[in-house]
Amino acid sequence: MDMLTTEQIEAADLKDWRKLGQGFHARYVVDGFGEGVRLVAAVGQAGDVLGHHPRVTMGDGFVDLKLISEDAVYRDGDGREHVVEWVTEKDLELARRITEIAAEQGIVATPSAVTVVEFAIDTAHAAAIAPVWAALLTGSTEAQGRGTIGTDIRDATGRVPILWFQETDEHETPRQRFHLDIWVPPEIAESRIAAAVAAGGIVVDDSQAPSFTVIADQDGNKACVCTYLSADEPATPDETPETPWSVDR
């Protein structure tokens, strides 16, 4: 199914929803967990009928929904087709039904409250450093280029924000303006670090492991693989630490 243009999405006039990034988002305000569950259950039934479902996040007083198609078709300037993640007509169809369900249940949307966070790195070496970041963020390089024609890092389960790469001219390694903390269970920290190194990353500092280990890509961009253990506690898969709180750094 063809990906929709911004104009096509706006023409649908679905006031509960907002197009952010690649997806279509809505936040509904609910009076307690039970009301949220009832909304999600009804949305699930509607999705079963249409053969399409939203991604759902529930919290205290809200239900967040994201609609996106993993099989949207994008045609480049040469007419070649690419399968990408984007909004399609089936997302609009389900959004219409969800809007009706919310109205029937007396639940109000707060479209101004929806937010999506993405991270970007300026680099002249996107193809080289992308596997490192895919491994750091998701544990493997499979997330690189998923649902896009570029090198973006997109986790299939939505555990982490999208990371994309802004192409720049060749330059000396600058001082990094930000870094990411990737919090993982202690028992997988070593495998996550190993995956990043196998993809081309470098261990810059492991003196505070397993609390945190600093990894850098080939451009010198740094991230920390973090756990709640302090530097002097071993990470053992079959043992739960007696003090499972994070260590201040």
Automatic annotation (TrEMBL):
Single Gene Ontology MF annotation: 4-alpha-hydroxytetrahydrobiopterin dehydratase activity
Keyword Repeat included in the entry's annotation: no
EC numbers on record: 4.2.1.96
InterPro entries named in the record: Glyas_Bleomycin-R_OHBP_Dase, Glyoxalase_6, PCD_sf, Pterin_deHydtase
Record key words, sorted: Lyase
Catalytic activity reported: (4aS,6R)-4a-hydroxy-L-erythro-5,6,7,8-tetrahydrobiopterin = (6R)-L-erythro-6,7-dihydrobiopterin + H2O
Gene3D superfamilies referenced in this protein's UniProt entry, alphabetically: 2,3-Dihydroxybiphenyl 1,2-Dioxygenase, domain 1, Transcriptional coactivator/pterin dehydratase
Pfam families from the UniProt entry: Glyoxalase_6 (PF18029), Pterin_4a (PF01329)
Domain Glyoxalase-like: 119-226
PANTHER family: CONSERVED PROTEIN, HYPOTHETICAL FUSION PROTEIN
Family under the similarity heading: Belongs to the pterin-4-alpha-carbinolamine dehydratase family.
Name the record gives this protein: Putative pterin-4-alpha-carbinolamine dehydratase
Origin organism lineage: Bacteria, Bacillati, Actinomycetota, Actinomycetes, Propionibacteriales
